[in-house]
Model the fold of this input.
Amino acid sequence: MTVARHRQPARFGLYLITFVWMTVTAATGALAAPFAALVMDAHSGQVLYSENADTRLHPASLTKMMTLYITFQAVEHGEISLDDEVRISRNAASEPPSKLGLREGQRIKLRYLIRAAAVKSANDAATALGEAIEGSEAAFARRMNRTAKALGMTRTTFKNCHGLTENGHMSTARDMTQLGRHLLYDYPEYYNLFSRMTADAGMKTVPNTNRRFLSAYRGADGIKTGYTRAAGFNLVASAERGSQRIIATVFGERSTPARNAKVAELLDMGFRKAPARVALNKPSKPSYAASAAPDGAAGKTIRLVTAVPTSVRPRSRPGMSTGTALVVASKQEILEAVEEAQAVSVAAAIPEAAKPAPAAAAPAPTPVLTASAADIPDIAPRVRPQDLVMAGASSVVPSVPQTEEQQVVERVSTSGGRHWGINIGRYPSRYAAEKVLLKTALAEMSALDGSLRKVVDRVNGYDANFMGLSRESADLACRRLQARNVSCFMIGPS
Done:
């Protein structure tokens, strides 16, 4: 009995110590957080070591890597700008620490929220990012899951933007390592955020939650820490030494020093096992449409629909019957009319005796734009005069003497001083030169009246010329064309 009385206080003290230890470890989450790890060669994507790498565990603030990935994606595709001011909601402002200290109704630039979420791991900043991009935290979580699927994170489910413990909010060491590798290679312009010891978050300068490991391990330059009671101490870290880069992920360590020591051990092992030289095999960046909305539709991409759904027939003009046919002159008919107008000067050279007798003067008919077959009067054409000689007839016009053999004229007539011309440019093809000549003739009919359009084949192109002008008319035509910003110079008699 005496011995038992002496041993009882010692046994009570052992029970007390055990109870205190269990209380402390339960508070830190060490009992509830299974361990998992994975080591990957960042250049090749080869897994060098894994332990429980596919076990679904609480990711804690490693979640913010996905929040930031989607934010970078949204900025890249113009959904939002780094300088856009985000209005803080009550939901974001009420998030528990770690936090930046945002207030409801406050406005802050997106770039500061990114820094706060990446460096300080601020929960209020992460929630504000999600709400700014998708309108609500729930909608952003759905986008997180779509993006995770596009990245190949097959065993990850997100429920919020920050990583605080929530039922069903789970991931794995393999998935988080894959996400870290995508951040590194998909958005290298933002990756330096994760290596900053401090950052200006607009309201204040915030320290990096990973600063101890960054300063202690040679070559370390990121990526993200995470801690909750349910998750334990998590870290995705990347380090580069020479031509090697290793990514190591740890879930469920018991403390910050233990986590940092384990990650350093895994990185050392990775540098030993990874080849010194390996071809860079970057991960495939997911399609923006596939990662932004279900069924491959872009989340906030605005598309302008330019196709006309129906072709509405225009209403008829007043007084027009339903069966009225619309008469429209074709382009060919217009060109023929222009040619006929330029042939007026040739017709003037026909002797008076060869011309038909003038008909009685009649009032000019009113132009008719539209007509039907029933409206056209059946008028018989007048009989052609017997003494009319048609052009090209085999008979000879009596009044024209044929004392000598006719000759083909190959040069433009210079009678009356019309031996000048103008050049309006050199073009790569005959068609282009002819097209410009016709367009210019229609634009300056008065100045170029009576001229001849001529294309001259040169070594390096085709000259577009108007010939058969007097010096005065050539000079006038050139000045009028130059006033229209058309290049032009005069061509003298050769």
Remarks:
- The radius of gyration is 44 Å.
